[in-house]
Design brief:
The complex is a heterodimer. Chain A is of the alpha/beta class. Chain A is built from twelve helices and 16 strands. By secondary structure, chain B is an alpha/beta fold. In chain B, a hairpin with a 2-residue loop joins strand 5 and strand 6. The chains are: A alpha/beta, B alpha/beta.
Chain lengths: ~350, ~300
């Protein structure tokens, strides 16, 4: 089973497998080492680090919802200084691929964070958190302006050649526009997506169940939503897209890979079972093995060869990611798309979507 | 917090239900067999119980205070006492012998029962669960040790019917060589009044110094904390919070620190603890000494 090649590339970085653990769900990478060997994961994304320590929001920070949970943590973290002095040396000893998540109120904050951490050999790459829904400043809303994303990514790109991953908010009309904006600014990959803004009301008080009116929804409840956002990003850009949202099984992973995600992040599942990520990886491997696929690429080609998905709009994203001759056509299309400021949806989707509709009616 | 060290001995295990029985006033007593390397829980610690969410409709595990633990061949028989009040606990109540449940634990820090002095256990309502366990541990220590300490147990509820586990409490106190004092809000059993009034009435008869260990509603714990601070008594209080992971990574269960709690916090503490402003209920607690928390702002 281990003979299956499940490695993937994010920029210059090669990950042993496509299973990453999402920021904010696995500490700084060292805390779960007694239950999960982080070397077995594709990568560990750390808790978001900000310039100054943040105490986070007051209670109540968590509310359970149907097949999901709302959180309003508020980017609680130890701050750059402690992260650098105490966490980075520990991460170096783990032998795992560490992606540091950085968050800031402004582009300058992000620049300072990245400059301070870029040369740390323990850190293989960076995820820029453009999408925290639970902070008053520098949160998801601030970072949903495409021009701001492009200029910020350019400034960050100038600092390091290490992979830069932009983590996007799903709470926009067209995530494809944010995706293209980050790609244009030099991002190596995208994470689609962070939590969805949600609410829950305590009827005994008439107030929000959380410390703020709204929080971020995660868990299986958001998987179909996240999958659609991921798919939209895959259609819009050439860079790898990392799917995230509600993944709790190996089958969930394959759904994201089927729509063209290069990798995935496991988040809330780790709250239910700390070993969820490694169990999900094992399950994904056994599904690939059962299909007789020797790599993720080969499995995708099986899907394409079967024609599966083509009638339902999956075709373009699969083909785009399949590394075949068709890919260059698709690249040309999506780079056209990158310059289009309106529309959002690439032409291919509309076409195949219409075909699907027709064939169903027919 | 009982100690400034982060507990990392917890494990994720699949447990099997040894049995579940009704325990009075709508409560259930659940026995789970949890295989090694799951370690021995201590009173005040909790275990996250996770059922298959596709069947129960609830996503998150339930943080459950441990009501008892006994060694079995390959691990521990861990007991829980609870009332099915929500979706998750109603699902737990449907478990029968042989069913499987995911157990994560033991989590957090328990009561420092070894602290020198007279252990005074105080339970309010269904907060009795960890106090039964504490009484059992004290009874075993009393049987084994050369200098048995006399333990005291103060147990209160709204009415006689809600003194759930009274017989078990009495049995453990007999073994511990201690005394049981009861009270009810409606006067239907024991003293007519609350646990703090009962404590204030009886405490002069307890060998000094006394060390309080308590579990119950936060209002009760706050009253005990304020009394303990005013009377220069140590009080260790088992807190509750909404939780997601139970291990510190989700940052979901902050409790407000007191001024002295803020002073005692240092940035050298484990990153899965809280910060200067908030303590993390799961990793630093759930048992806190009265002086560590800002009781005015405890929810």
């Amino acid at each position: 089973m281990n003979a299956i090649d499940v490695s993937i590339a994010i920029g210059e970085l090669r990950l042993a497998n496509p299973i990453m653990v999402a920021s904010g769900t696995f500490g700084y990478g060292d805390e779960y080492a007694h239950v999960v060997d982080p070397r077995t994961l594709g990568a560990v994304v750390t808790k978001t680090v900000t310039l100054k320590p943040r105490a986070g929001n007051p209670p109540t920070r968590i509310a359970e919802t149907a097949a999901g949970m709302l959180n309003s943590i508020g980017l609680e973290n130890v701050g750059l200084q402690k992260f650098r002095a105490e966490k980075v040396p520990k991460l170096a000893g783990l032998g795992a691929t560490i992606i540091a998540s950085i968050g800031g109120d402004t582009a300058s904050h992000l620049e300072r964070l990245l400059s301070a951490l870029a040369d740390e050999s323990a850190i293989a790459g960076f995820e820029v958190n453009f999408s925290c829904p639970n902070v008053a400043k520098g949160g998801a809303r601030y970072w949903t302006v495409p021009r701001r994303l492009t200029t910020t990514m350019r400034r960050l790109r100038a600092i390091t050649n290490k992979p830069l991953i932009a983590k996007l908010s799903p709470d926009v009309t067209a995530i494809s526009e944010l995706a293209r904006a980050c790609e244009a600014g030099g991002a190596d990959a995208l994470t689609a997506t962070n939590t969805f803004v949600g609410m829950a009301v305590d009827l005994s008080t008439g107030r929000s169940k959380l410390n703020r009116a709204t929080g971020g929804l995660s868990g299986p409840a958001v998987k179909p939503l996240a999958l659609a956002r991921c798919y939209e990003c895959v259609q819009a850009v050439r860079i790898p897209v990392i799917g995230s949202g509600g993944i709790v099984t190996g089958r969930d992973v394959l759904e994201f890979l089927a729509v063209g995600a290069a990798a995935v992040q496991v988040g809330t599942a780790s709250f239910l079972r700390p070993r969820a990520s490694v169990d999900i990886l094992a399950e994904m491997r056994s599904i690939l093995a059962a299909a007789g696929a020797e790599s993720i690429e080969a499995w995708r080609e099986q899907l394409i060869a079967r024609g599966a998905g083509l009638a339902h709009g999956l075709g373009p994203s699969l083909v785009q990611r399949a590394g075949t001759a068709v890919r260059s056509e698709s690249r040309a299309d999506s780079s056209n798309g990158a310059h289009a400021t309106s529309g959002g949806e690439p032409r291919e989707i509309a076409t195949s979507g219409a075909k699907a509709g027709e064939s169903e009616r027919g | 917090m009982a100690t400034a060290a982060l507990a990392t001995s917890w494990r994720q295990a699949t447990a099997s239900v040894a049995g579940q029985v009704e325990y009075g006033d709508g409560h259930w007593w659940l026995d789970l067999d949890v295989p090694a390397p799951f370690e021995q829980p201590v009173p005040g610690q909790f275990v996250q119980l996770l059922l298959d969410g596709t069947e129960t409709g609830s996503l998150l595990p339930r943080p459950m205070s441990v009501a008892g633990a006994a060694p079995i061949d390959d691990g521990w028989r861990v007991s829980f006492l609870y009332a099915p009040v929500g979706q998750g606990t109603r699902s737990l109540a449907r478990l029968r012998a042989g069913d499987r449940v995911e157990a994560l634990g033991p989590l957090g820090h328990g009561f420092p029962l070894e602290a020198p002095g007279t252990p005074v256990l105080i339970a309010g309502g269904r907060g009795v669960a960890p106090m039964l366990f504490a009484a059992d541990v004290l009874a075993r220590q009393s049987a084994a040790g050369p200098h048995p300490r006399r333990s005291q147990f103060v147990f209160g509820a709204r009415s006689a019917q809600q003194l759930v586990g009274l017989d078990d409490a009495r049995e453990r106190l007999q073994r511990a060589g201690g005394a049981l004092y009861t009270c009810t809000d409606d006067g239907s059993h024991g003293m007519h009044g609350n646990v703090l009034q009962l404590l204030a009435r009886e405490v002069a008869g307890f060998a000094s110094p006394v060390v309080i260990h308590a579990c119950g509603p936060h209002g009760m714990l706050r009253a005990i904390a304020e009394w303990a601070i005013a009377h220069d008594v140590r009080a260790h209080l088992a807190m509750e919070s909404v939780m997601a992971c139970g291990t510190g990574v989700c940052r979901g269960c902050p409790l407000p620190r007191s001024a002295s709690g803020r002073k005692a916090w240092t940035s050298a503490m484990p990153s899965l603890f809280g910060n200067a402003e908030h303590a993390m209920c799961c990793t630093e607690g759930p048992v806190f000494e009265a002086r560590e928390l800002d009781w005015e702002h405890v929810v």
